[in-house]
Amino acid sequence: MSVVLSEHLPLLATAPDGIQKLRRLILDLAVRGKIVPVDINQSVVTTLGKVGKWAVGSGFPIAEQGKVGLEILFAKVSDMNLTENTKFITTTNHTISRESARRLRVNIHPAGTVVFPKIGGAIATNKRRVLVQDTAIDNNCLGITPKEGVNSDWLFVLLSSFDLTKYQAGTSVPALAQGVLSEIPVLLPPLAEQHRIVAKVGELMALCDRLETEQADSASAHARLVETLLGTLAESTNAVDLANNWQRLAEHFDTLFATEVSLDALKKTVLQLAIMGKLVPQDPNDEPASELIRRIADERVRLESAGVCKKAKPLPPIAESELTFDLPRNWVITRLGVAIDLVSGQHLTPDEYSNDLSNPIPYLTGPAEFGDKFPNPTRSTTQTRAIAIAGDILVTVKGSGVGKLNRVSQKELAISRQLMAVRTIAVDNDFIELLLRSAEQHFQDQTVGIAIPGIGRDDVQHLPLGLPPLPEQQRIVAKVQSLMALCDRLKADLATARDRQATLADTLIDSSLEAA
User: Fold this and answer.
1) Which residue from 122, 278, 476, 515 has the fewest beta carbons nearer than 10 Å?
2) Is there a contact between 289 and 296 (Cβ–Cβ < 8 Å)?
């Protein structure tokens, strides 16, 4: 490697995909004769087709497949994915006898042949494998058996340096043609230098392996540290204790929260602290939540009498096992169903909606059309069986996105049975959304069904709700929004820094290749 690259190895290794780029650079320099001193006068400029003999695949009748323990391995592309076959084909799912191979005129290729996929999407995987014994390959594979004076490991390095997708033809089913591959220019060094190149590549790839291991170990240790320290925040007894614990973290903020994963963990902790009443101090002058509960009940009676919402069913009392934190002063513990009206989505048949917005009511079928905060429906209807209104909180209750949320911005929005709409009664909408966001994993844990997992109305209505006084709800929401905005700014800064690092890494690599 160049001196410039060696000096900037830490930067390159920690850049996005940096180690993968470093591996590609090592291969590029190796096949150009720039990774070890090479006598260019002893090297031969030739083409790929002249460094060996093409190893052509054979048809493999189904009647012959599935047999094991016979003399000849029969390799398919899928065999390249076996854990034992990371570089060498040492085992296959199929074998064939020599007698059957002769009868079927199957091509048998010797040890040292380097094979790769030649048809379909597997070309893009850029897999290369070396045969270690007499082996047949099926006709989705192609290979090269090195000629005399060509080292098999050097040939593996050479073929690994090519992005074969650049040479494929066809769109629906891409394929590689021998004629095209045969003309790829190649610098063929003397055999002794091939051995030195292979040894140096092995040494540098081992360095890349160590860098990857160190990064993985460091990331794992960092994640454990962040988890432990955020846990101390969650264990704070009150807002004052939290402030003290937070101050200790703040002294090392740049180190602790230097990854998107750690910032996401911080966001989750903020939500947890919010619904436990530990994010802002309690104000003894606030009206107690017990009074708020009475107002909620009065408002519900009024809405039911006006036909605005359905009569609520009795909710089960809170069990002691559901009290997962000490309730702050002036709070009450209840269930979410006490403070909301819940609208269940309904299925519409294709003749009840259109695939455009020509009808008066937008129709939302599921979370696929959720935005960052508000949905973007592309269908519409005249049906009013399940209508959400502006301000309602949409909860995904069926499918892989259970627990995902969005907020209704439309005056009216028809919703499908994948969704429910949470309509709050006399409480702060944003505070209830915080509760629902913190419960996403809880909802996913409650899902039933295999083909289409989901939750029911009871899972939403029975969710325990620690209810603070209304003014405190608003203070909590303001604090959460402030902290979430900070996390988002930090994530944006990380993305910008990562892009700059990637650009610099690419520049270093390009400079090294140009210098070569």
Assistant:
1) 515
2) no
